[in-house]
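Hello,

Following up on my earlier ticket. Below are the three sequence lines again, exactly as submitted.
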Amino acid sequence: MAYVDIVTALALLQFVVFGIKVAKARGKYGVKAPAVTGNEVFERHFRVQQNTLELLIVFVPGLFLFSRHFNPLWAAVLGVVYLIGRGIYAASYVKNPAARGAGYGISALPTVVLVIGGLVGAILLPLGR
Amino acid sequence: MAYVDIVTALALLQFVVFGIKVAKARGKYGVKAPAVTGNEVFERHFRVQQNTLELLIVFVPGLFLFSRHFNPLWAAVLGVVYLIGRGIYAASYVKNPAARGAGYGISALPTVVLVIGGLVGAILLPLGR
Amino acid sequence: MAYVDIVTALALLQFVVFGIKVAKARGKYGVKAPAVTGNEVFERHFRVQQNTLELLIVFVPGLFLFSRHFNPLWAAVLGVVYLIGRGIYAASYVKNPAARGAGYGISALPTVVLVIGGLVGAILLPLGR
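Thanks for your patience. The regenerated structure is below:
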């Protein structure tokens, strides 16, 4: 189970790093709070963080469910794929938003697999035990 | 406990579907990333997703806490009410944002009940056991 | 473990209160859905809620991980610091966004400590047991 918790913590810290980049971009490009628009590069960093938030709310419980009803090691492997995909997503989005597709897919696909796997496992569990 | 996990997974997948609708609306109405404004229908889909995110962060741990400190079956029942409410919310918001109240209430109310129930259960637990 | 669950529930309810304030500000300042801009005071309430969402997605699993791999009581203490910090953050942001730094730090710091503590604990756990 510890592998899953390590991957969870790393995904949370990756998201914290994205948040720090938003805060830095806010200062660098002079986007004063509460505004979240006004500079294209700031908006890219902000959208990376927001999109990761949208995925993280699915990823963290998905990791837990897949680990519980299937297999913790496979959950952790899918989690590492997510981490790599999000890294690619963030780097490519900031350079060129139109190129964000690959990184998005590499992080969104394992997230959906975790949830669907967790769902199937949870449904079959009463039969299997 | 499996009922609660099934409802959790379904709520996550419902949110993923809302996200897919945002991505489709982005393409259909030509809202280029990183922008999240510029077309009213896109903005409705986007707000459905964002508002669901705001509720999901409360719903998922709330379901867990209520299940742990009260009753897993009742947690799952409240979770199904949430799922139905969110479906109504999404459908009505996209048609007419002013009509979003009913679906909002049907999904927000069970969410708050889950958290308050979980809190009361957690406080009474050391006395009760 | 109940202390951690009580703090979790309180953090969720605090976030619900921030959401209610956004809804009230929406009505008071006439910001019609799906818009989330157009009035400075509304935007401050909205950013308090959104920023808390960004922190909550890290805080809730972080609390769980720290509690599991270190110590539930210390997790709860750090959680109470977070709750106080968020209260200060919300109050100061609405008055003056430029003054949000202190409350932000008092809530973000324990959150990061929870995650890093949980990570270190999860890594050392297989050795320690």
